[in-house]
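Reviewer 2 asked us to include a model.

Predict the structure of this chain.
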Amino acid sequence: MKKGCLSAALDELKNMPDKKRVFIVTDNFLYHNGYTKAVTDKLDEMGMTHSIFFDVEPDPTLASANEGARRMTSFKPDIIIALGGGSAMDAAKIMWVLYEHPEADFMDMAMRFIDIRKRIYDFPKLGEKTYFIAVPTTAGTGSEVTPFAVITDESTGIKYPLADYELMPDMAIVDADLMMNAPKGLTAASGIDAVSHALEAKVSVLATDYTDSLATGALKMLFDYLPSAYENGEKDPTAREKTANGATMAGMAFANAFLGVCHSMAHKLGSFHHIPHGIANALLLNEVIRFNAVSIPTRMGTFSQYKYPKAIEQYAEAADALGLGGNTDNEKVELLIAAINTLKSKLDIKNSIKDYGVDEKVFLEKLDDMTEQAFDDQCTGGNPRYPLMEEIKKIYLNAYYGTEGKYEF
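Predicted model (structure tokens):
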């Protein structure tokens, strides 16, 4: 991780004499705007054969992953390089599985669990054919350091978050040079996604001292540098690099602590109403904080190391790390919410789902299905307060109209 490190990092492939064929996965925009050239030029210099798949959609589908895996099978790579945002990296991870294990059943891989370290389904062993390198071009998803991949079943429209440490990339190359010219909208959406990663990892029932330090450090870095990265772009390379590092640190935190109901709901809000994932999280985040920040939740998230409800204290710790002041934990939670609102304002993120042009009648018609799918999302289990579906629905409604909810216990 360092601005300009891409070429030096790829030099490490010289030490892998059995690796000579590289399959690059990216999207159409990055390919046609020359982002792959720095990679292919370096591969040409090292005498490595390469092929590029650039048909990844913004919300990658199983059909796209199957097509990429088919082309991999034809090309027979021994290295995969995923170049792009979360979509390219997630799609490449699924292609990786399907290439190395064409017999794998997708629904088995999507099977639910409490902790991916202790699950019924044994995920296929990866890395026997290929070495996987993730190169992010956005500062937000953290997919370069996580064991997760979100994929959409195009036949049903359902987004499935797959999770297993087999999906962890072998190498991550975080080079801010690839992010300097990111559009402002992308910078805002991906950056606020990273903020939500850090906050959800901070209060997750699986959080530990290790993930907590990463989540807290990422939050401070993102609050300090994301606004300038958004406003000034390549004119502030330090802010770009620090934002990239903060996003990857947040990825490392939730790779081990996992997420919560904000991401569960954002997955469905995005798939039902085509709101960018980071923006969907931003629209829900404050309502989820209010929902979680109670001393005596009626239903606590369940995990053996999570002994008692402590979300309020953890949010207060985040507020302290950001230097927000406040005398009591409840005051600190309110100051944290206010700071998030200020950050969203600096990033020109609107206040409500309705403000993003989602028709009220359509939203209400789809609300029950969206609520049920959010409740069933794999991320829900990590939330410190376990929600009822009626509570998820209330969070959605408050986020739609931009009103603040009271979540009594």
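Strands lie at 21-27, 49-56, 79-84, 131-136, 148-153, 158-163, 171-172. The chain has two domains: 6-178, 184-401. We have added this to the supplementary material.
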